[in-house]
Design a protein that fits this description.
With 301 residues, the chain is an alpha/beta fold. The chain is built from twelve helices and nine strands. The protein has a seven-stranded mixed β-sheet, with helices on both faces. The chain has a two-stranded antiparallel sheet with strand order 1-2. It binds glutamine. GO terms for molecular function: nucleic acid binding; peptide chain release factor N(5)-glutamine methyltransferase activity.
Length: 301
């Protein structure tokens, strides 16, 4: 096959795949078509650089396209999701990391006086936040807490890939007492993208509704904030004075999240931070000096 022939097959594959995905209601058909074509062609390079297509390319692409047309998330088809500088492994049944959550790591840096050494990620899912911390801060240690067994296993895998030996996972329910978590206080930062969707707000996208586990989406209680409240309470227990909690929430929950942190007490700076589209999406809460937090087991031991 000549380079010219490969390119002409790629051009028509791009047009066909984009059309099929568009007809299936996929929101970004041409971006997804390119990603599926590159996957079927077994390349990481831009498609214009591809000189040759592997045997079985057309069948493989048809198979991938059919999956995406059924609204299976692109990340699950490719088996990975970009998150900050990482390509995380993702698996069916585990919440897929979202680009908006990436901002939590920058907010942590902005609100601390130096790089954090000890970081806790609550409701870790695929392990995205903890893995990003390990990757970007070579001296950091992370403890990730995740309720679901399959997700906890994926977190352990992604932490290990990002920072061998510096990450640890606890499979536990934040609504209960967790002595091994209490024992790591005091830490510099608590990061969390907890479930927070209220019970009556169904996600619109089929990819989310049918593929993200509902336990990772719906936060519990009338307002979706049962698990986020537990995150705030844990942050108060775990953070050193001056340490920060960065927690994602829904765009309508800014005031309620601030109120939850005020009710919890123990913080001397509370703020709501918008995402890149201007919507309120993060609670920032800095631990006040005051009663000491106690813990016997250091993360860095
Ligand atoms: N952000 C999720 C969504 O897009 C909601 C749940 C979460 O991230 N914790 O559906």
């Amino acid at each position: 096959m000549s380079g010219g022939e490969a390119r002409s097959r790629l051009r028509s594959a791009l047009a066909d795949t984009t059309r099929q995905l568009g007809e299936a209601g996929v929101p970004s058909p041409s971006v997804d078509a390119r990603a599926l074509i590159a996957h079927a062609a077994g390349t990481e390079r831009p498609l214009v650089m591809v000189e040759e297509l592997p045997e079985g390319f057309a069948q493989q692409l048809a198979h991938l396209t059919a999956r995406r047309a059924q609204r299976e998330p692109l990340q699950l088809i490719l088996g990975r999701a970009p998150f900050r500088h990482l390509l995380l492994d993702v698996r069916p049944g585990v919440f897929i990391p979202r680009p908006e959550t990436e901002l939590a790591v920058d907010l942590m840096h902005q609100h601390l006086d130096g790089p954090p050494h000890e970081v806790v990620d609550l409701c870790a899912g695929s392990g995205a936040l903890g893995a990003a911390v390990l990757d970007e801060l070579p001296r950091s240690r992370v403890l990730s807490v995740e309720i679901d067994a399959a997700a906890a296993e994926l977190t352990a895998h992604n932490l290990e890939r990002a920072g061998t030996g510096r990450g640890r996972v606890l499979q536990a329910d934040l609504l209960g007492e967790i002595p091994q978590l209490a024992a790591v206080a005091p830490v510099d930062a608590v990061l969390s993208n907890p479930p927070y969707i209220p019970p009556d707000a169904l996600p619109r996208d089929a990819e989310v509704l049918e593929h993200d586990p509902h336990r990772a989406l719906f936060g519990g209680g009338d307002d979706g904030l049962e698990v986020p409240r537990a995150v705030i309470t844990w942050a108060r227990r775990l953070l050193r004075p001056g340490g920060v909690l960065i927690m994602e929430h829904a765009d309508v929950q800014g005031k309620a999240a601030l109120a939850a942190a005020t009710d919890c007490g123990g913080f001397d700076l509370l703020r709501t931070v918008p995402d890149l589209t201007g919507r309120d999406r993060f609670l920032v809460a800095r631990r006040a000096p005051g009663e000491p937090t106690s813990g016997s087991e250091r993360l860095s031991r």
